[in-house]
Design brief:
This protein is an alpha+beta fold. It is built from 7 helices and 10 strands. A 5-stranded antiparallel β-sheet has the order 5-4-3-7-6, with no helix packed on it. Keywords: Membrane, Transmembrane, Transmembrane helix.
Length: 259
C-alpha cells in the first residue's frame, strides 16, 4: 500500500507526526489564539516543535539505541539526568520569561507527553512487526532429523555471516564468532576481537548459520561449537563466559558438545 511506503521514510513519518500534533493543539487553541498579543500567538507552537524533537531523540536515540539494545542502566541514567535538567530549565524559563509561579503542571504535562510519545512509538513498532513476513520456526535438530550423507560434491556455503552494523555491510567470518546473544529485536555478536550489535532476531540468525558449526543452547544464545565446551549438565563455557543451557535444548546440546 502507498501509505505504508510513505511511512517507511523517516522524514515523512516524523513530519506527519509533527503535523498531527500541531493540528490537534490548534483545534483546542483556535478560540484563544486570536486574543494573544504578538509572538505569544505562536509561542506554544514553537514549544511543540521542540517537544516533538525531544520525543524523537528519546525514542530513537535513548530508548531504541540503548534500552532495546540491552543497555538499560545507561538508558535510565541518561533519562534521569535529562529529566532533572529539563525540569529545572523549564521551571526557570516559566518563572523568569512568563511570570508563571506554579510551573509543576507544565512540567508534569511535558513528561506525560514523553510517556505518551513512547507509547505511540512502541505501538507503531509492534504494528510494523505484525506486517513483517514471519520466519518459520525451526525446532532444535535431533539425531532423528539429521539427513544422511550422500555422495557427490557438497553444496557451497558462505564462509561468513553477512550483516549490517551501523548502516554498513559487514562480513564476520564464522571462526571469529564466539557466541550470539539475543537482545529482543537485536543481536549482540561476540567475536574474538569485539562485539557487534545488529538488528536481527535470534531465530533469523539461527536459520542463516550452518548447523555444523553453531548450536542454539537456549532462547537467548547460539554458540560456536569450535569455541564451546561443556562446563556441566546445565552450562556451556565459551572462553571465560559460562552460558546456561535451556531445558528444551539440553539433550541436543549435550550430544553436540564434547564432555
Amino acid at each position: 500500500m502507498k501509505i505504508n511506503r510513505l511511512l517507511d521514510h523517516v522524514w515523512i513519518r516524523n513530519l506527519m507526526g509533527l503535523a498531527v500534533l500541531l493540528a490537534v493543539h490548534l483545534l483546542a487553541d483556535i478560540y484563544a489564539i486570536g486574543r494573544r498579543p504578538g509572538l505569544t500567538k505562536v509561542t506554544p507552537y514553537f514549544y511543540l516543535v521542540l517537544l516533538y524533537g525531544w520525543l524523537v531523540f528519546h525514542n530513537r536515540i535513548l530508548f531504541e539505541g540503548l534500552f532495546l539494545r540491552g543497555r538499560k542502566t545507561a538508558y535510565f541514567g541518561w533519562l534521569l539526568l535529562l529529566v532533572a535538567f529539563s525540569s529545572f530549565n523549564m521551571n526557570f524559563i516559566l518563572h523568569t520569561e512568563f511570570g508563571i509561579s506554579r510551573s509543576l503542571p507544565y512540567i508534569v504535562s511535558f513528561w506525560v507527553y514523553t510517556v505518551t510519545g513512547l507509547g505511540v512509538y512502541i505501538t507503531y513498532k509492534y504494528l510494523r512487526s505484525l506486517n513483517q513476513p514471519a520466519t518459520p520456526a525451526s525446532p532444535p535438530a535431533t539425531l532423528d532429523t539429521v539427513q544422511p550423507v550422500t555422495s557427490g560434491p557438497a553444496p557451497e556455503e558462505p564462509a561468513s555471516f553477512l550483516c549490517m552494523v551501523d548502516g554498513e555491510r559487514l562480513d564476520i567470518a564464522y571462526p571469529d564468532i564466539l557466541y550470539i546473544e539475543s537482545l529482543e529485536n537485536y543481536l549482540k555478536i561476540f567475536t574474538k576481537t569485539k562485539p557487534y550489535i545488529i538488528r536481527l532476531t535470534l531465530k533469523e540468525a539461527e536459520a542463516r548459520l550452518p548447523r555444523r558449526l553453531f548450536v542454539r543452547i537456549s532462547r537467548s544464545h547460539i554458540v560456536n561449537l569450535t569455541h564451546a565446551t561443556r562446563a556441566d549438565q546445565d552450562t556451556v563455557k565459551v572462553g571465560e563466559k559460562e552460558l546456561r543451557i535451556g531445558k528444551v535444548y539440553k539433550r541436543h546440546v549435550l550430544e553436540q558438545l564434547p564432555g
